[in-house]
Amino acid sequence: MKQNGYESDKNRIVMVTQIDESPSSTELLGSKDGAGLWDRSPSAVRWSVDGKMLLVQADEHGNEILFKLDLLIAPDDASKSLPQPLTGSGAVSDVQTLQNGSNELFVSGSNLVDSSIYSIINPSNPAKTKLVSSSSRNGLSFGLSDDQVLDLWFKGSGDYKVHALVVRPSNFSPENKYPLAYLIHGGPQSAWTRSWSTRWNPAIFAEQGYIVVLPNPTGSTGYGQAFVDDIQGEWGGLPYEDLVQGLDFIRDNLSYVDASRAVALGASYGGYMMNWFQGHSLSKRFKALVCHDGVFSMANQISSDEQYFPNHDLGGPYWKAKETWEKWNPARYTGNWSTPMLVIHSERDYRLPISEGLAMFNVLQERGVDSRFLTFSDENHWVLGQENSLVWHTVVLNWINKHAGLPPYRDETLPIDETSTREESEESK
Predict the structure, then answer these.
(1) pLDDT tens digits, residue range 295-347?
(2) CA 293, CA 379: separation in Å to the nearest integer?
(3) Which residues are catalytic?
(4) By the 8 A CB rule, do 68 and 54 touch?
């Protein structure tokens, strides 16, 4: 990274030599203009066994790809000197070199239907990858298949295309109509990828009967550094307009989506976007929203354990860039909040303290908007405990299913504690 205080600046590969005497360094894939020859941001780098190449992991159009960077190719041969992909669709989580005298690699990864895939790849012939193990037999054990997942590209708010992943139910039929689940990722400099997770797993929503769309709007990674940087000073601007464009595209081009039964969900920056939706016209196009650990008041981000996000993206600390902070402040538009919303906020969240969630819920209650509040006393910015995860999914799925016209996921068996008691009392008002 070159820019101090910018957590999402482009990662660069630098080779340091002569450490003991006169240290010197060379940026691989560097360029005279400083942008670099390769417009991707490496997340991990390691040597091959023979030391002739580097193995590089980076996001690429909704995939987490393993690349090889051949160090022996002349740098003026641009077509071959750039990193070459060794994997395609899916997400590589780790790579280890095999100690058998060859350059073969043992690679672990996943995709949106398979939780764990192990394979052996020969960098000189990656097309002949050997599958060692698929824990779910390529999703079959879960009743899932690759056919459920599609790529979608639509025009953004400017002269660029926006990418989204689509996950359909396993019993999908193009003759039927399905409600939409529009999932907005956090970050904001992050991306939905073809990776498996026990949190925000699109297949869980798809198997309830939704068409799940995972858009990667302005600010997302894997589409070039300029696309990442363009969210600066635009938190509720370009990304929001991209999401409006995406919803229009879905309505006009996916005939099997019932856009009148849409719900939207998001966490962290995605939760910020739920609150931004609430204050703007897009919220009227959703039956319900789910905000998990989102931003309510931009000024309150001063209480966050991570100051570099707002300070960089909004042009400086609050007292130096107050106009920008307030421009994108969801709390300014609470007079427009009217869409039913489930608010989830945990007590050990120091990224966005629980007061943010309480403020959202209070606004919704005072405005008479159908709303619920769910909290976990022992969770932070993520819900990681197994039993807590079951509660989270039960409440979330029951909430969106109720508003989208789908059957309940299952009967709720929340523990009788202060959280559930307060929730029941609020609902009885």
Answers:
(1) 999 999 889 888 877 888 899 999 999 999 999 999 999 999 999 999 999 99
(2) 11
(3) 268, 349, 381
(4) yes
Single-letter amino acid, residue 2: K
CA dihedral 93, 96, 98, 103 (to 10 degrees): 90
Q: pLDDT tens digits, residue range 199-230?
A: 999 999 999 999 999 999 999 999 999 999 99
Nearest to 290 by CA among 134, 194, 397: 397
DSSP 8-state symbol, 10: P
Would you list the DSSP string of 60-99? ETTEEEEEEEETTS-TT-HHHHS-EES--SSEEEEEEE-S
Residue in 219, 382, 198 with CA at minimum distance from that of residue 292: 382
Residues ≥6 apart with Cβ < 8 Å to 354:
345, 346, 347, 375
Residue 259: enclosing H or E segment and its boundaries?
Answer: strand 257-267
Strands (E), 105-229: 105-110, 117-121, 130-134, 149-155, 161-167, 178-184, 211-216
pTM attached to this predicted model: 0.92
Amino acid at 8: S
Q: State the amino acid at position 197 in one-letter form.
A: S
